[in-house]
């Protein structure tokens, strides 16, 4: 039986890019490491099948993927395990699965498991997730965070649970490795014991996925206002706004909420950095530029606070009769 390398996310840390590279270049990668890759949508189907949290299974995306799972995937994994040294499975949905559930499913298929997790500073993760929801899912609600329902964001606790099961954990510090050209891919291939330089000329870039780009701060505000006013068909309005935008800034949490997140994760992150990132003092996970404050472990933020009436008025004037 083979060793399983299980890439569990996090979402918004380049998971889709890694999956695109694996799918587009599976033959090159497999030939350079006696590796098999579970490709296509199958990893997502498997991960959603293994999610059993009652709060999550009713989510539309998870429910739809869960219902597409078939036992053929398990049979394919058994075949791959019998014919390779390593099998790679990547899906950001795995972060939502219980560790015991994953262990139980894989224990009779693979000889061992190694978990790979890509992480970024929690405030940036939260902002990036909200950005994606507003853009792709038409989100209308405020940006909310509650520590009790965001347990997977405590990277120290999550990785320690795997370590307690004698399972190795490899970590990719997303924002740190992205400073180097192709740093994310190089880091992932290194975990697979593949030399990026040896195969880089054979690699094909994954298809550009337009759903994965991020909106700027101003674009998030406009799209959120459009969502709240039921303006769904005016995609040209957002494109026109983007072309005329004089200054593009990253969508971030306000400093006050950055401090809330720092207060809740800074201490845990430091232990995580020491053990899993070889005490990398340059990691943004240390919140070295954010002052923490004593604060509750939840908040709700309306990004349109103070400008919502103005945006609603302008949108109604510009889309009158077009809805």
Task: Give an overview in words.
The protein is of the alpha/beta class. Helix content is 46%, strand content 11%. Strands 2-3-1-4-6 form a 5-stranded parallel β-sheet, with helices on both faces. The protein is globular and about 65 Å long.
Main pleated-sheet profile: 5 strands, parallel
Low-confidence stretches: none
| Distance between the amino and carboxyl termini | 57 Å
Helix/strand class: alpha/beta
What is the chain-wise order of helices and strands?
A: EHHEHHHEHEHEHEHHHHHHEH
* Percent of residues in helices: 40-55%
Overall pLDDT score:
93
What's the gyration radius in Å?
21 Å
Number of helices: 15
Strand content: 5-15%
Quick synopsis:
The chain is of the alpha/beta class and 323 residues long.
Question: Keywords for this structure?
Answer:
five-stranded parallel sheet; single chain; 323 residues; alpha/beta; two-stranded antiparallel sheet
Give the helices and strands, then pairings.
Elements: E1 3-7, H1 15-24, H2 26-31, E2 35-37, H3 42-50, H4 60-66, H5 72-82, E3 86-90, H6 99-106, E4 112-119, H7 122-136, E5 143-146, H8 155-164, E6 168-173, H9 174-177, H10 183-191, H11 196-199, H12 217-228, H13 235-244, H14 255-276, E7 298-301, H15 308-319
Parallel strand pairs: 1-3, 1-4, 2-3, 4-6
Antiparallel strand pairs: 5-7
């Amino acid at each position: 039986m083979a060793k399983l390398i299980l890439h569990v996310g996090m979402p918004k840390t380049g998971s889709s890019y890694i999956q695109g590279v694996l799918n587009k270049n599976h033959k090159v990668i497999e030939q350079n490491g006696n590796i098999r890759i579970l490709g296509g949508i199958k990893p997502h189907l498997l991960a959603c099948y293994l999610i059993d949290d009652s709060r999550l299974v009713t989510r539309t995306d998870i429910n739809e993927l869960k219902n597409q799972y078939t036992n053929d995937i398990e049979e394919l994994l058994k075949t791959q395990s019998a014919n390779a040294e390593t099998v790679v499975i990547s899906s950001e949905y795995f972060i939502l699965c219980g560790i015991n559930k994953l262990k139980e499913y894989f224990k009779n298929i693979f000889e061992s498991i190694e978990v790979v997790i890509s992480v970024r500073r929690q405030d940036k993760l939260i902002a990036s997730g909200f950005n994606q929801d507003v853009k792709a899912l038409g989100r209308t609600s405020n940006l909310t965070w509650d520590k009790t329902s965001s347990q997977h964001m405590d990277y120290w606790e999550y990785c320690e649970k795997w370590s307690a099961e004698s399972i190795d954990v490899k970590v990719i510090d997303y924002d740190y490795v992205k400073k180097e050209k192709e740093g994310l891919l190089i880091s992932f291939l290194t975990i697979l014991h593949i030399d990026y330089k040896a195969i880089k000329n054979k690699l094909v870039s994954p298809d550009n996925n337009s759903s994965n780009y991020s909106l700027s701060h101003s674009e998030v505000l406009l799209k959120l206002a459009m969502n709240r006013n039921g303006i769904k068909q005016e995609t040209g309005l957002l494109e026109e706004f983007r072309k005329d935008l004089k200054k593009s800034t990253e969508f971030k949490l306000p400093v006050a909420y950055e401090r809330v997140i720092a207060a809740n994760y800074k201490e845990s992150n430091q232990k995580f950095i020491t053990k899993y990132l070889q005490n990398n003092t340059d990691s943004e996970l240390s919140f070295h530029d954010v002052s923490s404050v004593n604060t509750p472990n939840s908040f709700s933020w309306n990004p349109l606070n103070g400008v919502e009436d103005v945006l609603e008025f302008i949108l109604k004037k510009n889309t009158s009769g077009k809805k």
